């Protein structure tokens, strides 16, 4: 995450959560719920680095799907030539694609603790992150499928939202080792369901 987010990511996410909080008109101010499950559109398309858009770096055709129970999802990237469709930082030789599923619970105000608590604490922050293999920036890439499945048979409930994120990381190969670049990497919330 450090290599994929700008220094203001926390503030930008807090701003979105405040907007979602203000959408709840059923409780008094200060006691409103944060019902992400009814306001998912606020998170769709969220870039973790506002200065580096996923679609500005990666232009190959791809599609996302998820299971009806929201417990699994796939990123499928058609075969492509990275020389034409990946805007890599200078010196990079390889890249990896990332697909992740993360569960975020709705939150409600707890007057006893004077804080917001997740409505489904057991599922909140459950996630799965999967990576492609190391893909050569100078060779055609075959059709690539990356599947993510929530661990331990977790099935999201009505009070949760699943964030399906996609990203890219850049590496330089030196001998048999791959070294992660500190720039050019990006991550995006592609879908929220």
What is shown here, in short?
By secondary structure, the protein is mostly beta strands. The chain has helices spanning 9-23, 54-57, 82-85; strands at 62-66, 72-77, 94-105, 107-110, 115-118, 127-131, 135-136, 144-149, 160-174, 177-180, 186-192.
Map the helices and strands.
Blueprint: H1 9-23, H2 54-57, E1 62-66, E2 72-77, H3 82-85, E3 94-105, E4 107-110, E5 115-118, E6 127-131, E7 135-136, E8 144-149, E9 160-174, E10 177-180, E11 186-192
Antiparallel strand pairs: 1-2, 2-8, 3-6, 3-7, 3-9, 4-5, 9-10, 9-11
Description:
The structure is a single chain. With 193 residues, the protein is mainly β. It contains three helices and eleven strands, in the order H-H-E-E-H-E-E-E-E-E-E-E-E-E. The strands form three sheets. Strands 3, 6, 7, 9, 10 and 11 form a six-stranded antiparallel sheet that branches. The longest helix is centred in the N-terminal third of the chain and has 15 residues, at 9-23.
How would you classify the quaternary structure? single chain
**Model regions low in confidence, pLDDT < 50 over at least 5 residues:** none
By DSSP (H or I, 4+ residues per run), the number of helices equals: 3
Distance between the termini: 22 Å
Strand content: 35-45%
Please provide the ordered H/E string of secondary-structure elements: HHEEHEEEEEEEEE
Helical fraction: 10-25%
The average pLDDT score comes to: 95
- Indicate the radius of gyration in whole angstroms: 18 Å
**Largest sheet features:** 6 strands, antiparallel
Q: Using DSSP, what is the number of strands?
A: 11
Shape: elongated
Which structural class do the helices and strands define?
A: mainly beta
